[in-house]
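User: Hi! Is it possible to get a structure for several chains at once, not just one? Here's what I have:
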Amino acid sequence: MKELSLNILDIAENSVKAGATLTEICIEETPDLLTLTIRDNGCGMTEEVLRGVTDPFYTTRTTRKVGMGLPLLKLEAEQTGGSLTVTSRHEKEYPTDHGTTVCSVFHKNHIDFTPLGNVVPSITTLIQGHPDTDFLFTHIFPNYTVSLDTRELRTVLEDVPLGSYEVLKWIEEYLDEQYESGGKTV
Amino acid sequence: MTVRELVEKAPFKAAVLPDPDREITGVYIGDLLSWVMGRASGGDAWITIMSNVNIVAVASLADTACVIEAEGVTPDEEILATASAKGVNILLAEGGAYETAIALSKLL
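Assistant: Yes, the chains can be modeled jointly so their relative placement is included. Here is the combined structure:
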């Protein structure tokens, strides 16, 4: 993919498909590293599925719901000298505490680093597509943090659906503002 | 022209040819796998410098006639084994993507 923000959309969609009620998307940046973690409380994967999840054939041929998302993200991380790890707790073994965590580390200064791009449209697209599940987004920079928690929005909005145009527009502006004012303090 | 005929006529070496009678109907050049996945057409000879096992999956999904590794790139054993198992032809070319495409253009 041309931008990591598109990968985020792809991986988070898997979380929603796995039945997650909360998907946490965390980007942490230092001058050299970008760590992208996507953690959900969905059904999780069995050890067998987990072993094959970064094998493009296992994923494209037998479990179509996973797709090429993880193999591509792994390639993008590794081509910067970084890594991708996936851990998962399947609902059968962990009935109350299940889910999947995808953690990828990128060396930002490597020439083959895929630029992050603008994350805001990815976040609003996710919320628009899945207004009934929750997302916690945090983007941590050395001196400021951008964040959005749809659980908090829901308590304020009460009956207004998160997927409505006005709310999505507000979310977009809210995130853009945080990026702008954070950027000024650098 | 089939992939086998291409190997006979062009300065390309066959790394694995599990499907030698596959007809080549076009050419695609690209290294960004997610891009290639959506753009390469069935029957294309796909020229790339990427050599990760994902190229076999992309070739298989896009149903390309063969992968041509340009610039002397040589895929490792794991890739070749997967390619043979999945019926993906892989050829090796010494020249860059441009020279490789010219050679194809003269033959196709």
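Residues 165-184 of chain A form the longest helix (20 residues). Chain A has one domain: 4-184.

User: Great, thank you!
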